[in-house]
Design goal:
heterodimer; A: 253 residues; mainly alpha; Fumarate Reductase Cytochrome B subunit; 69% helix; globular; B: 518 residues; Fumarate Reductase Iron-sulfur Protein, Chain B, domain 2; 2 domains; four-stranded parallel beta sheet; three-stranded parallel beta sheet; 4% strand; binds protoporphyrin IX containing FE; binds iron/sulfur cluster
């Protein structure tokens, strides 16, 4: 194996561990910290099914964002949809054709639309970037990391498109490299620059995920304002530390 | 009227261009040592001075909050700076100060969180906008966390449900505990425990007031309507904001509740020791204070042996009652489980209207064309009635059942998108007049437009703070203070009590209307 391949094997493992351990850690923290009070934003659902529906509208349709600002919605939604398509399309590099998941990867939508998703993603990202620069309010709240995050993903999308349309890489060898990571049977990585740039940025994105605002993806599901049922009069809600306070003075008995 | 300019109202809302520092001079009076001590908060040598070791204390308290409130912990992490909330706050719209954009308000604390509690902020502070905790930062927090009415309008539009009010509450609590408490709230809360209400109205004065109101109703209607105080064995305990006892238009609402109770033939009482629905523990972000204030109601419900609890017209009080009374002062197993615990006065009145037991003459309100101001805490932080969203329909249905002329304000300014009156969340104090007037701009704009276009003469509200705030700010916007009315004041005017005005010839006709309304 080439030194370069060894380096990338190591980088990939580090990135994967950072991502998985980091995000799991964060999720466990969100689960551990209690929500002492009912703070659902009303009108809120009265049933679990209602909560699932509420999340459906938020996660799939970005409903609140739609109500808030149409431009950000358009750019943001297109970006995330293409991200999802690109994700599915990339599954073919990690799933072999005899896997039961293959039909999913092979879906016409994924393979055909996925092919163009890169363009859509760049379009969405460019819109979000523009908004950050040109809208005075959004510029005011932006830190360097907010711009860099967009540039990073644009870089990933850009190099991805380059490989798809201009500088093709050795897909067979790439797939062997990636499958090798999973089966601990390490293989050489094609060494063309565009691919290396693409992979380096992906590794970077994975590493910053648990320490950045990308935590919005898991965090969204832990906002008490959204997941809580609207039933405080029917069902008593009490946290562990709330109960401890009660036990101390006994005034609730 | 004051040394600031009242914002313009326009035909169509415009998002302002940011003006940095426009409101940086605004801050409420600090609590002196006396008031800090009353609340169990520490104080430095002079009023508002930070305590020794404030920095460590601040970070320790922040850590404690992050471990106790999932909302705070998650909200600190999940903001993507998308900007969806930036133009949603009435204080930003009215002042153009970028630090009044909800996300910027959260960032005052988030920058500290990142610096001391996240890897990225420790290692690359500049990159992720993390900053050191200094006295200037504390002063900025004190200023801008008191330019937030905890109204949650921003949370409705945030794709991640990030509620700036949660951040404001946490920050205020921490500030109080390093020596920077707000005078207004810290002065008021102890009165609740010592006397029974925010106003400091003792039992004899309260008895006197209620007697006066009974006489007033008798003079007006010829019917003796009782307003009982501390009456053991009554079925219903009415807990209402103390402004209802004396302020206009609140007091007309209180007479409205009394008339409804009278017409419904139920027995009820007010408690002198729990003669306050308001719970400023919410505003200052203190679970313990909010609980202690709530427990008075439990104690009084037990002492008086009531079966039900009904809350009068008050926004944040209803938020605490609806969401937290069960948590903080429950379980309520000793009350009658056939009724919601607690119940809102509008739920009671609506039910009476539906059952047709109120005799209504809508024409009594014909000299007015009404609109309705959804109070933020009722619209976005609680519910009235059985269905999600019935907090919007029930008040309107009640108004329409007692008035002939009703018009809604612009759709983007009502229901869960309603604009705060500008005086909520512990800002209803004269030392914050400028931010109160400027923060009222979006509501005043929507009101002005229906006044012009649809001939609206009055705006009804179901919140003591909204009512007080509007009486103060309406004149700044070229309207008059009596244009704000209580919903139950409208009910009061339209209701015809049994035996009232025997010569009233169109009583039969009214009976029909009641059925129609029901
Ligand atoms: C549960 C899945 C997810 C949901 C519901 C979600 C939702 C959102 C929403 C509503 C926004 C704000 C609007 C916008 O700026 O686009 C946003 C922003 C963003 N999301 Fe996601 N997201 C998800 C997953 C991800 C993932 C996996 C990534 C990783 C690459 C990501 C990257 C971003 C970025 C970079 C932004 C900020 C865009 C900007 O700077 O303007 N999202 N997300
Ligand atoms: S809670 Fe209300 S006042 Fe506070 S930042 Fe949000 S919109 Fe503004
Ligand atoms: S809408 Fe929510 S995520 Fe977007 S900037 Fe505001 S607080 Fe952050």
């Amino acid at each position: 194996m080439t030194a370069l391949s060894i380096l990338y094997v190591i980088l990939f493992y580090v990135a994967m561990i950072t991502l998985i351990v980091g995000v799991t850690n964060k999720i466990l923290q969100y689960i551990r910290v209690p929500a002492p009070l009912k703070i659902a934003i009303t009108p809120a659902p009265l049933t679990r099914t209602g909560v699932v529906y509420r999340f459906f509208t938020e996660v799939v349709l970005f409903n609140s964002l739609w109500r808030a600002t149409k431009w950000t919605w358009i750019f943001g939604w297109i970006f995330h949809l293409s991200l999802l398509l690109a994700f599915f399309r990339h599954l073919r590099y990690v799933i072999s054709p005899d896997s039961f998941l293959w039909p999913l990867v092979d879906l016409q939508v994924v393979q055909s639309f996925g092919h163009y998703a890169g363009f859509a993603m760049l379009f969405g990202l460019a819109g979000l970037f523009g908004r950050r620069i040109f809208v005075d309010r959004v510029r005011y709240i932006s830190s360097p990391s907010d711009y860099l995050m967009l540039l990073l993903i644009m870089g990933i999308a850009g190099t991805g498109l380059l490989m798809a349309y201009v500088a093709h890489t050795d897909i067979v060898q790439l797939k062997a490299f990636i499958m090798g990571l999973f089966f601990l049977d390490w293989q050489n990585l094609p060494s063309d620059l565009v691919l290396l740039a693409h992979l380096t940025m992906v590794i970077g994105l994975m590493m910053i995920f648990p320490v950045s605002k990308l935590l919005h993806a898991p965090g969204l599901f832990f906002a008490p304002t959204r997941y809580q049922l609207d039933n405080p009069r029917e069902k008593r809600h009490i946290s562990e530390w709330g109960a401890e306070i009660e036990a101390k003075d006994g005034r609730n008995s | 009227m004051a040394d600031f300019e009242t914002p313009q109202t326009r035909e169509f809302p415009i998002i302002p261009t940011i003006v940095e520092g426009a409101m940086s001079h605004s801050a409420p009076f600090l609590a002196s040592e006396e008031f800090q001590t009353d609340m169990g908060f520490p104080s430095g040598e002079e009023t508002g001075q930070l305590i020794d070791g404030w920095k460590e204390k601040f970070l320790e308290l922040l850590k404690d909050k992050l471990g106790k409130y999932r909302s705070l912990q998650v909200f600190m992490d999940t903001c993507v700076k998308c900007g969806a909330c930036t133009d949603k706050c009435h204080y930003f719209i009215g002042t153009a100060d970028p630090k009044n954009m909800p996300v910027a308000r959260q960032d005052l604390l988030r920058k500290i969180y990142r610096r001391y509690f996240t890897w990225a902020g420790r290692v690359f502070p500049k990159l992720v906008g993390a900053i050191d905790l200094t006295e200037e930062v504390i002063d900025e927090m004190y200023s801008y966390y008191h330019q937030c009415s905890e109204c949650r309008r921003c949370a409705v539009f945030c794709p991640f449900g990030i509620d700036t009010a949660e951040v404001t509450m946490a920050a205020r609590d921490i500030l109080s505990m390093v020596g920077k408490g707000q005078k207004y709230s810290n002065q008021i809360i102890p009165k609740i425990f010592k006397i029974g209400n925010n106003l400091g109205l003792p039992e004899p004065a309260l008895a006197d007031t209620l007697e006066g109101l009974e006489e007033e109703i008798e003079e007006e209607t010829g019917v003796k309507v009782r307003m009982p105080l501390d009456e053991k064995g009554a079925d219903i305990l009415l807990v209402t904001p103390s402004a209802d006892f004396f302020a206009e238009p609140h007091v007309d609402g209180l007479m409205g509740y009394a008339k409804v109770f009278h017409a419904a033939g139920v027995s009820w009482t007010i408690s002198s020791k729990a003669s306050e629905a308001a719970n400023f523990g919410l505003f200052i972000g203190s679970y313990e204070q909010m609980r202690k204030i709530s427990l008075r109601i439990r104690d009084e419900a037990k002492r008086l042996g009531v079966k039900r609890i009904i809350f009068g017209e008050c926004g944040h009080a209803w938020r605490v009652a609806y969401n937290h009374l069960n948590t903080l002062a429950g379980p309520w197993d000793f009350l009658d489980q056939n009724y919601p615990i607690p119940q809102h006065i509008l739920e009671f009145t609506k039910d009476c209207l539906d059952r047709g037991i109120l005799n209504i003459d809508k024409s009594e309100n014909d000299h007015m064309t009404l609109t309705f101001h959804d109070s933020c805490n009722i619209a976005r932080a609680s519910r009235i009635g059985e269905e999600p969203g019935s907090q919007f329909t029930i008040p309107r249905e009640v108004i329409k059942a007692v008035c002939n002329n009703y018009v809604d304000m612009a759709p983007e300014t009502i229901h869960d998108a309603t604009f705060c009156c500008g005086g909520g969340g512990g800002l209803l104090t004269d030392d914050l007049m400028e931010i109160r007037v400027k923060g009222a701009q979006p509501r005043m704009e929507a009101l002005t437009n229906v006044v012009k276009d649809s001939g609206v003469t009055h705006m009804a509200a179901i919140c003591a703070i909204c009512k007080s705030q509007f009486t103060k700010v309406l004149p700044y916007y070229g309207m008059t203070m009596d244009q704000i009315v209580s919903v139950h004041q409208l009910v009061s005017s339209a209701i015809i009590l049994e035996g009232q005005g025997e010569d009233n010839s169109d009583e039969l006709e009214n009976g029909d209307e009641t059925e129609e309304a029901a």
